[in-house]
């Protein structure tokens, strides 16, 4: 019996394995979420100093040299204690330490274990639905990327090209083998995803004189279109717009947030993309049963 045959008859076991693996990946995603924006800001600062012909452009720039996704090792920001492997077990270490650094008792944000757990859960859902195959591995890369993009956009209102553009090309590569949809559908999905939001952006700007969203949103929807095809774009746009509107109005009414403060749209696109990936057929059938 092959692994594929074994897991086809034991999908729950595959989901459990994916959950455990996802927890570990979630720990790494926390590093990416925190460090990638700093690395980008550092690079931009260096480029600006070089453009302005400032002598020794690397001087007085924090995080240089040797700051990347691999170095330095994770450590407590207060006491600088380097986190050991036993202190870095996803979710479990945070619970056993009471959400605090073992050495200085600095509180550790619960968002770290939440991201780890969330990554594990969505990994399990993908593995359970799609089974033991190369498509599942590809879709896990997509979902992990969406987690990173969601949190970076939430924190910095930024969707890095370092993630969105490779994601778009990977979607086209996956569908060149017909894994999810046809290559033609994927290409038109990428074009349509980017073009639709580009059109909305310029229409809003001509009517109001303001920027309604960033170019990163265009690229993200284009990437989702490249993965799932142009047919899924209406569902993603509908879901993301609906959730975004509900959350935005709630923030204004309940929390009194200034309506002029921009709200990142990337998290809603990413969430809608994940929902469409797993349940698009069911949602489409529900829509037609209600409205048609």
Largest sheet: none
Helical percent range? 55-70%
The fraction of residues in strands falls at under 5%
Question: What is the average per-residue confidence, as pLDDT, rounded to a whole number?
Answer: 87
Q: What's the order of the H and E elements?
A: HHHHHHHHHH
Q: What is the end-to-end distance? A: 46 Å
Form type: globular
| Helix/strand/pairing category | mainly alpha
Beta strand count: 0
Our Rg estimate from Cα atoms comes to 21 Å
Low-confidence stretches: none
* Count of helical regions: 10
Outline the structure in words:
The chain has 292 residues and is mainly α. The protein has 10 helices and no strands. It has helices at 3-9, 11-51, 92-96, 111-130, 134-156, 161-176, 183-208, 215-228, 233-253, 266-291. The mean pLDDT is 87.
Set down the secondary structure blueprint.
Layout lengths: L2 H7 L1 H41 L40 H5 L14 H20 L3 H23 L4 H16 L6 H26 L6 H14 L4 H21 L12 H26 L1
Helix pairs in contact: 2-4, 2-5, 4-5, 5-6, 5-10, 6-7, 6-8, 7-8, 8-10, 9-10
